[in-house]
Amino acid sequence: MNRNSKLLRFDDWRIWLGLLIFIAAVIIFFALNPGYPRLAIFWIFGLAFGFVLQRTQFCFVSGFSNFYIFRYSRMLKGILAGLAIATIGFTIIMYLSVPDPSSGNIPATAHVAPLGWHLVLAGVIFGTGMILAGSCIVGTLYRIGEGAIKALVSLLGILIGMALLLYTWGWWWPNYISQVPRVWLPQHLGWFGSVLLTLTVLGLLYVIVHFLELRRNPKGDLSIEAKVGLQTMGIRACLTNTLKRVFKPYWPVMLGGIILALINVIEYWAVGRPWGITGEISSWSTGMLNFLGIPPPQVITVPGT
């Protein structure tokens, strides 16, 4: 028998390991679901996000830095595509909660942050730190899963920074952030106007990014993704080829942005909250401080922030 016609070769260890982990994840889901259905749902969503992130190497920092330094837009275009899809999906969900946004009622799950100079300052500090670290928070997490020991140093810095925030939030929130207005576009433009404006801006950014990339790189972005042509093959060979595409080469980033956005919309609809990272990092920092015997004060916020 031709070696390539076998369903799975024993040296394709990543395929075997991927299948075993998938089966284990399904078993854990069914074990959790009877007693902890919400935890089971988060288990599935967490695995889905993590898998897609790692397969696409999706990272906001590399999207902006690669475009700024090299004019490679592959990641940035994936980010813009994901934002466009999430905008439509989130709008539909929030519309069902607040059909008339002109009243000023913001959905409790909308997470509309106060708009002020603190966002610019935080963005500059955070962006600088992530550039030095080589990845954003999600990139740090899946790099740790890949065995990047140096990423543990980045994670430790993130935990320490979050701990400092927990201790100083009692000053930041009442003295400044809570006094800054929250700008919610649907209140001023309506649902249709807000979506139209957002998609127009994202579309213009996509065109600008594409144009600037072509000026620097006439042949387009150099991609490390495997390009596999379509072939006429049997069922067994087709299954083998499909599994290899899933577990071996990196996925197209554009596909990753679209899938991540769709998963995020589904999670928002299913459990009433979108995908987030900082909230869980805050829990890890709280656990670290409690372990050290210096528990942080209670964080004061209002719904929707």
Note the main attributes of this structure.
single chain; 305 residues; mainly alpha; 2 domains; 11 helices; 0% strand; globular; disordered N terminus
What does this structure look like?
This protein is mostly helical and 305 residues long. It folds into 2 domains: 1-109 and 188-274, no CATH class; 113-183 and 279-305, no CATH class. The protein has helices spanning 13-32, 37-56, 60-70, 74-97, 117-133, 137-145, 150-175, 185-216, 235-247, 253-271, 278-291. The longest helix has 32 residues, at 185-216.
The backbone outline, from C-alpha atoms, is globular
Order of helices and strands: HHHHHHHHHHH
E-strand count: 0
Indicate the structural class: mainly alpha
Query: Which percent range describes the beta-strand content?
Result: under 5%
Rg over CA atoms? 22 Å
**What assembly state would you assign to the polypeptide chains in this entry?**
single chain
Distance linking N and C termini:
61 Å
Number of helices: 11
Q: What is the helical fraction, as a range of percent? A: 55-70%
Tell me the count of domains.
2
Largest sheet: none
Mean pLDDT: 81
Q: Which parts are unreliable, with pLDDT below 50 for 5 consecutive residues or more?
A: 1-8, 222-233
